[in-house]
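step: validate -> pass
step: tokenize input -> pass
step: predict -> running
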Amino acid sequence: MRGLYSVLQRIHAQYPDLYMMMCSGGGGRSDYEGLKYFTEFWCSDNTDPVSRLYIQWGYSQFMPSKAMCSHVTNWNRQASVKFRLDVDFTCKLGFDIGLADMAEQDKQYCREAIREYNRLKPVIYSPNLYRLLSPYDGEHCVMERVSDDRSHALLFAYDIHPRVTDVQLPVTLRGLDAEARYRVREICLMPGQQSWLDCHDKVYTGDYLMKVGLKVTSANQLVSHIIEITKE
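step: predict -> pass
step: emit ->
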């Protein structure tokens, strides 16, 4: 291990602007010392989006989202390209997928989602992460990122394999300004798709969002929502 970091120190000294990825799948290591030399970590060779929800839930307990590399791939074709991309949207987004076989609608979605991702990087990479529903406790995963000044937040909601009879309760948010008013909008929709969330394009107080919450889960299989919350 000391030998590895001795090599990395010499590489970094000679090539300080070189971007490198440390691979958890091949190298079997991800550690804080590596953050000095690597711009990102490959969390796992398992890129199934459902598995990644669990992997990234645990990985983010230790590593910042900016260093967690997550790519859209062909793994698990039961999941839509939107669901796969929405899972990767929470980390350092990338693609390992053949564009030639992708439907034009999916390509358009990816292009628009990338534009949104680049716009929202400051929030996606914010250290203020709130874990609202754990995939380990049921068939849903909901996470929230909030900017330092509490003016901007992103809510990521995923339905995995819920039962039709499951009761869907509102999810209460955290980290907002209770006195402020926030506009809630679902973003990254498929081309031509309208949001069916009741909260879409409505304004709530931070107090309401943190005490009453929003209905963002459903009994549908492999459905995802990215919701932008902006202080007015």
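step: describe -> Residues 104-124 form the longest helix (21 residues).
step: cleanup -> pass
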